[in-house]
Amino acid sequence: MAELTPPELRVLLAVGDEGGFTAAATALGMTQSAVSHAVRGMERKLGVVLFERGRRGATPTPAGERAVGHARRILRLYEVMAAEVRGGGAEDTLTGPLRVAVFRSAALHLLPQALERLARRHPGLSPEVRVVRDVGRGTSGEVADGRADLAIATLGGSTPLPHGLITGDLVAESYAFVHPAGHPDPRGLPFIDWEENCSSYTADWWSSQDWLPRATITAEDDGTVLALVSQGRGMAVMPELSLRDAPPTVEIADLGPGRPTRRIGYATTPELARTAGVRALIRELRAGRAVGTPGE
């Protein structure tokens, strides 16, 4: 099988991102016929159909989606290679973008301190942060698809991480019972939850709690849950990072020694794990990874 060249990979990525040959041609400064010819050539080399052609553009087939993800990751490695070679391999000369995917509470309370330390040590790096909902493939899917160099993700949850990524633990955070301060019967309030709060490591605990009803209010995210609890609309069970900015109108109660916890870690590809920028960020994340226990 003939190898795909970097120009072919750029065409593949452009068609996938732009959703059509004409739009990809405009983005690349090529003709539509040249883009179409390049895609046909790649399909012959790979022996698969990469895009379904139609009046509304070009839709990646399952094979095409995988190919686009690989193309994005390979082209990113070319960029990193150029930056590291120009810097002579010394970490104090790191430059260029460093792409991070992170879910909301970690973006607010775990990542900023690490980025601050990273900026002091490596001022030439330019972190680009994408906040992604921690559902489905979540933040780790951004890495698998080549849109991020490193993800901060929940590990050990009900949804397996995409195949081929490597991970490492950063923190373990406990869950706590959260309710309006001073309420006489907090367990009698409606239960508020959000989609990102579901995971295999809390499911068994959840099912064993007779006092905890099914959610009667489903919010958009943990910040909205906390606001609703603060307003007296209900009670919730939330992880520690989500409670860092809890107002005094919210009371946080320890759930005891059997309380559920969740693991937060990083995910990246084996190739990017060897790059200086990713290694530097992992060091800073590990340097500030202590998370306290709610209610303490």
Explain what you see.
With about 300 residues, the protein is an alpha/beta fold. It folds into three domains: about 5-65, Arc Repressor Mutant, subunit A, CATH 1.10.10.10; about 95-165 and about 265-285, Periplasmic binding protein-like II (D-Maltodextrin-Binding Protein, domain 2, 3-Layer(aba) Sandwich), CATH 3.40.190; about 175-260, D-Maltodextrin-Binding Protein, domain 2 (3-Layer(aba) Sandwich), CATH 3.40.190.290. Helix content is about 40%, strand content about 20%. The protein has eleven helices and eleven strands. It has helices at about 5-20, 20-30, 30-45, 60-85, 105-110, 110-120, 140-145, 200-205, 220-230, 270-275, 275-285, and strands spanning about 50-55, 55-60, 95-100, 125-130, 150-155, 165-180, 190-195, 215-220, 235-240, 250-255, 260-270. The strands form three sheets. Strands 3, 4, 5, 6, 9, 10 and 11 form a seven-stranded mixed beta sheet that branches. Strands 1-2 form a two-stranded antiparallel sheet. The longest helix has 25 residues, at about 60-85. About 35% of the residues are buried. Mean pLDDT is about 90; it is low at about 290-295.
